[in-house]
Amino acid sequence: MKDTWKELITAIENSGKQYEIDRIQKAYEIACQAHEGQKRRSGEPYIIHPLAVSIILVGLGMDSDTIVAGLLHDVVEDTPITSEDVKKIFGQDVALLVNGVTKLTNLGKRGEYVTQEERQAENVRKMLLAMAQDVRVVIIKLADRLHNMRTIQYREEQKRRDTAKETMDIYAPLAHRLGIRSVKEELEDLCLRQLDPVAYNEIEQNLELRKEERVKFLDNIKERIQERLEKENQKAHIEGRVKSVYGIYRKVYMQGKTFEEIYDVYAVRIIVDTVIECYSIFGIIHDMFRPIPNRIKDYISTPKPNMYQSLHTTVLDKEGIPFEVQIRTWDMHYTAEYGIAAHWKYKAGIGGNNKDKMEERLAWVRQLLESQKESGDVEDIVRSIKTDLAPEEVFVFTPKGDVVALPIGSTVIDFAYAIHTAVGNRMVGAKIDGRMVSLDTEVKTGMIVEIITQSNQSPNRNWLKIVKTSGARNKIRTWFKRERREENIAEGLSELEREFKRNSISLDNEKMEEFILDIAKRQHFSSRDEFLAAIGYGGVLLSRIMPRIKDDFQQKYRSSESEKSEKQIVKPKKSGVSNGVIVDGLDGCLVKFSKCCNPLPGDEIIGFVTRGYGVSIHKKDCINVTSSVDNEEQKDRWLPAHWESDVRESFKAAIDIVADDRPGLLADISIALANSRVPMHSLNARELKNHQVGINLVLSISNLEQLNNILGMFKRTAGVISAQRAYQ
Ligand code: MN
């Protein structure tokens, strides 16, 4: 750990920034003492972790307070030191930073959130709140996650996948949105290594194979550009770079390109002092090399939403090898590399507009929090993070030539709402490049979109199913919320009744009102009408809360039934509960799930009393049950069993898929699984006749409904012929 401390000091010395070494040293000593005796999974002393986090923070150019907080970020959580102590020694600012990080760390450890989605949604919301208060908290959290991902090989398999998934879903997009490229790319690569190790190794090997060739190629190009620029009296810094593994992965596996088709595996970056120079060098490059059509992007006049600016063009060298050239000023370069952290790193160097840039970035955070307040749906934020933060955007033009940036897949309705709420609300039609199109038409980069409005028009509820951006969705909901309360309540009630019927939930009127009020309260609504209205305008998605309503209903209904029977009949022996299964008449018995049929919550089940291994649970229609349940000798050993209403465990389920063999099929399937956060235990694929493949997956599943969703997802995957639960 002495070495790591030295490494931190060296990083500080090399940073060229003034740091308060005394305070940093003091923080190190306190952290050392506090974590004394604690070990990381790797077996190293714990203090290595906060030290590594602080080194990352110095690399990002963060200030002394942040470095101190980085060293102390786990002490309040894990050691006897309190936040009062931190405040006394290091002051209010550091204490607030440490507190902020501790709060974020504690999230999700408590069991108050039922689903993974809710937990994650709450996580993200807290993170955005912290960010709006002091963005340094989230930068420390990013550094913390980065070091944890770097050392994730010491965790067990499941934890590795979960952490990688969460990092890919939330932390990498946040780093992207904050513009911190180095952290974003490293996080993505580290995640990919966990989520798709086969592809990761393949790409890495491919890059390694061509390393020499690549270095020679880039050196040669750099030299030629340098010579030419000198002739033209242009001063510029030139560097070569290779796309990140994940960047290549996205193109190869998601867009179905071959390694050779990825033009920007090689890139040359030219950095100059002024914007004028950018454009003049752009001209020189096109004079030297032949540009590939449609590969020119001017992110200087149209910055990306995360404020990235550069000129991009892909050109061919004389052998016909394509490469990308990025041209930018130093200012743009710092923003591209360090994003919001550039505010600290180059505070002195960049001048006054830096503060504004930071404000502009954080405006996005506030806007997201604001829109969530309107809709009342925390999970919206997670959706926003996934869609609005998606690295791919399209740029669309208004008839006047203004540019609107939207996430890929956005429709003309999203465009209308992006221009102005009133434009969206009064929209009756849209024209793309002068032609009328339907409202679900997706917009593409370069299109000129004109929205046709009429003053007496209003939005349509179906639009909620069409729009892609959370901004548009929230505005439509807000409209319905404000304008149509009575209609919403009626709509909500009929939707609720429909769902109740579908789930065979029925009660007499009085009890029904009571039951609805209960649900409303649990969803944090003050009255039944508020709740129904929210269903009506789409603020509450019934499909999402239905499973829990069903559970509630069953619990209440079942317990009132048994109350009745208890009065009349002898009190039955209390049931035993284990692993989410209740076996009638057996208290706290050992339960295991039979391997022959792998029952899932939702399946009808029955228990078999084994000799010495407790009760083994089968599906009622399992062949081993049907063949033995009538057997005189074994009859008494079969006991009725049912699932607990709230099962949190997961169960193994096998799935058989038959599909047309095509490149990328396995990748699509594993991505789909990763996206739905379903852990995979094994995957076996074999060739069948007629260019088909049979794939057998064993997954961790928590209930039948989830299984059916997954099967549906597979069936929608291109090339899949059938997907079904496997029965051995
Ligand atoms: Mn930590």
Describe this entry's structure for a reader.
By secondary structure, the chain is α+β, with helices and mostly antiparallel strands. It has six domains: 2-195, Hypothetical protein af1432 (Orthogonal Bundle); 203-343, 2-Layer Sandwich (Beta Polymerase, domain 2); 396-470, Beta-grasp domain (Ubiquitin-like (UB roll)), CATH 3.10.20.30; 484-567, no CATH class; 581-643, no CATH class; 651-726, ACT domain (Alpha-Beta Plaits, 2-Layer Sandwich). Helix content is 52%, strand content 16%. A hairpin with a 2-residue loop joins strand 12 (576-578) and strand 13. Helix 7 crosses helix 9 (135-150), helix 8 packs across helix 20 and helix 9 (135-150) packs antiparallel against helix 10. It is globular, with a radius of gyration of 30 Å. Manganese (II) ion (MN) binds at residues 49, 73-74, 144.
Question: Which helices and strands, and how do they pair?
Answer:
Elements: H1 2-14, H2 21-34, H3 48-59, H4 64-72, H5 75-78, H6 83-90, H7 92-106, H8 116-133, H9 135-150, H10 157-177, H11 181-195, H12 197-209, H13 211-231, E1 237-242, H14 245-254, E2 266-272, H15 275-288, E3 290-291, E4 297-298, E5 311-316, E6 322-329, H16 330-338, H17 342-345, H18 347-350, H19 353-375, H20 379-387, E7 393-397, E8 403-407, H21 412-419, H22 421-425, E9 427-432, E10 435-437, E11 449-453, H23 463-466, H24 470-483, H25 485-502, H26 509-522, H27 528-537, H28 542-568, E12 576-578, E13 581-583, E14 591-593, E15 605-609, E16 615-619, H29 623-626, E17 638-643, E18 651-660, H30 665-675, E19 680-687, E20 692-701, H31 704-716, E21 720-725
Parallel strand pairs: 2-6, 14-16
Antiparallel strand pairs: 1-2, 3-5, 4-5, 5-6, 7-8, 9-10, 9-11, 12-13, 13-17, 15-16, 15-17, 18-20, 18-21, 19-20
Helix pairs in contact: 1-3, 2-4, 3-4, 3-9, 4-7, 6-7, 7-9, 8-9, 8-19, 8-20, 9-10, 9-11, 10-11, 11-12, 12-14, 19-24, 21-24, 24-27, 25-27, 26-27
